[in-house]
UniProtKB/TrEMBL annotation:
Gene assigned in the entry: mnmA
Binding site for ATP: A6, M7, S8, G9, G10, V11, D12, S13, L32, G125
Keywords: ATP-binding, Cytoplasm, Disulfide bond, Nucleotide-binding, RNA-binding, Transferase, tRNA processing, tRNA-binding
Protein name: tRNA-specific 2-thiouridylase MnmA
Pfam family, any one: tRNA_Me_trans_M
Organism (species): Psychromicrobium silvestre
Length: 374
C-alpha cells in the first residue's frame, strides 16, 4: 500500500513509520505545520509542533530512507481547533482540542489530501487498533497497553476514516518497548520526552492564555441555592470541578470546601457548591458520531449497555445509553451511569465502549447530578 506517515517529531510516530516501512509499504513522511509562529524549542515535555519537532521528524525520515515533506495546515488548525477552543470557553463549555484536531485536521484535512494524492492510508503513532468484523466492517478498539491507550481521542473517527487509518503501535506492550525499538533502529528521538498539555499553550497556563483571548468581565459567584458568596474577574476562566482560586468571601455553612458546579456565561455567573453535587449520573450528548457501523440497538432506538469515558485517561464507568430525537428532531444521546462520575462538564466528550470496541462519541450538552435527577 501507499502510506502517508504523519510525523509529529516524537518517538511514537517515528516507530510507527518504521514499522510501516518494514511491513513493505511505500511510505512517505509528512510533518504538519500547525502554527505560523512555532517556538524554536519546546519546554521539556510541554507543547509540540515546534521547529525542533519538525527537525526531529526530518531526521527520522532520513534514517528510514523515506521522503519527507512539511504541509502547512496552520490556517485550518487555527480556525478549526484554536478558534473553536476559544469560542467554547467563551460559551462556558470545556472543550477537548485533541478531539477536534483528530476530527478536523489529522483525520479529515490530512486524510482528504492524502487520498486525493493517491495514498491508501494515513499512518500515525496513536495507541489504538483497527479491526474488521465478519462482514468486513471496520471497528476501532483499544490498544493492548491500556495505560497508553488513545482510542478515546480517536472516538470521533468515522467508518470511512477507519478504513484508511493505520495504527502500527496497537500491539505494543508498553511505551518502554517503543523507546527500546527506537533505540535499536537508531532513531534519535528514542529518549525524547512525550509532549503533554494543550499543544498551542506550551507553558501550560490555560487560564492566562484565555485571559488574552476572551474579554473577562467581573461578576458574581453564587452557591447552589442562589445566594451570592463571592465575586470573580471573569467566568470564562473557571472550569467545572475547580476548587482552587475561588476566593470566596462567604464560607460554607458546614465549613467544607466548595467546587465549581456550573458556569453561566450569559449571566456571567459561576455556581459553586458541595463536592456531592459534582457526582453526575446522567449525561446528554449532541453531535453524535459512530466509530464504524453503529450497533443494531442504535438503529432500533433501543437502549444498550456500554462503558462511558469522559477523559482521555479517565476510568470508564458502566452505563446504559439510548439515542432519541430532542425537541428539534436532532438525535441526542442519553447516557445513564451505573456509578456516579465526578466533575463532568458541558463541552467535554463522552466516548462509549463495549469491551475494547469504541462505539462512538458525543459532545456533552448537559450533565445532571444525583441530587438534581428526579
Amino acid at each position: 500500500m501507499k502510506v502517508l506517515a504523519a510525523m509529529s517529531g516524537g518517538v511514537d510516530s517515528a516507530v510507527a513509520a518504521a514499522r510501516a516501512v518494514e511491513a513493505g509499504h511505500e511510505v512517505v513522511g509528512v510533518h504538519l505545520a500547525l502554527s505560523r509562529m512555532p517556538g524554536t524549542l519546546r519546554t521539556g515535555s510541554r507543547g509540540c509542533c515546534t521547529i525542533e519537532d519538525s527537525t526531529d521528524a526530518w531526521k527520522a525520515c532520513e534514517k528510514l530512507g523515506i521522503p519527507y515533506y512539511v504541509w502547512d495546515f496552520s490556517e485550518r488548525f487555527k480556525e478549526e481547533v484554536v478558534d473553536d477552543f476559544i469560542a467554547e470557553y467563551a460559551a462556558g463549555r470545556t472543550p477537548n482540542p485533541c478531539m477536534r484536531c483528530n476530527e478536523r485536521i489529522k483525520f479529515a484535512a490530512l486524510l482528504e489530501k492524502a487520498l486525493a494524492l493517491g495514498f491508501d492510508a494515513v499512518c500515525t503513532g496513536h495507541y489504538a487498533r483497527v479491526d474488521q468484523d465478519e462482514a468486513g466492517n471496520y471497528e476501532l478498539h483499544r490498544a493492548n497497553d491500556w495505560a497508553k491507550d488513545q482510542s478515546y481521542v480517536l472516538g470521533v473517527l468515522t467508518h470511512e476514516q477507519l478504513a484508511h487509518s493505520m495504527f502500527p503501535l496497537a500491539d505494543v506492550a508498553s511505551k518502554a518497548e517503543v523507546r527500546a525499538e527506537a533505540e535499536r533502529r537508531g532513531l534519535s528521538v528514542a529518549k525524547k520526552p512525550d509532549s503533554h498539555d494543550i499543544c498551542f499553550i506550551s507553558d501550560g497556563d490555560t487560564r492566562g492564555w484565555l485571559a488574552e483571548k476572551i474579554e473577562m468581565t467581573p461578576g458574581q459567584v453564587i452557591d447552589e441555592t442562589g445566594a451570592t458568596v463571592g465575586s470573580h474577574e471573569g467566568a470564562n476562566a473557571f472550569t467545572v470541578g475547580q476548587r482552587r482560586g475561588l476566593k470566596l468571601g462567604t464560607p460554607a455553612a458546614d465549613g467544607k470546601p466548595r467546587f465549581v458546579l456550573e458556569i453561566r456565561p450569559k449571566e456571567n455567573t459561576v455556581v459553586v457548591g458541595p463536592e456531592a453535587l459534582l457526582a453526575i449520573q446522567e449525561i446528554r450528548g449532541i453531535k453524535i458520531s459512530w466509530a464504524g457501523e453503529p450497533i443494531a440497538e442504535v438503529g432500533r432506538g433501543e437502549d444498550f449497555p456500554c462503558m462511558a469515558q469522559v477523559r482521555a485517561h479517565g476510568d470508564p464507568v458502566p452505563a446504559r445509553a439510548r439515542v432519541e430525537p430532542d425537541q428539534d428532531g436532532i438525535p441526542a444521546l442519553t447516557v445513564t451511569l451505573d456509578e456516579p462520575m465526578r466533575g463532568v462538564a458541558p463541552g467535554q466528550t463522552v466516548v462509549l465502549y463495549q469491551g475494547t470496541r469504541v462505539l462512538g462519541q458525543a459532545t456533552i450538552d448537559t450533565a445532571r447530578a444525583l441530587e438534581r435527577i428526579g
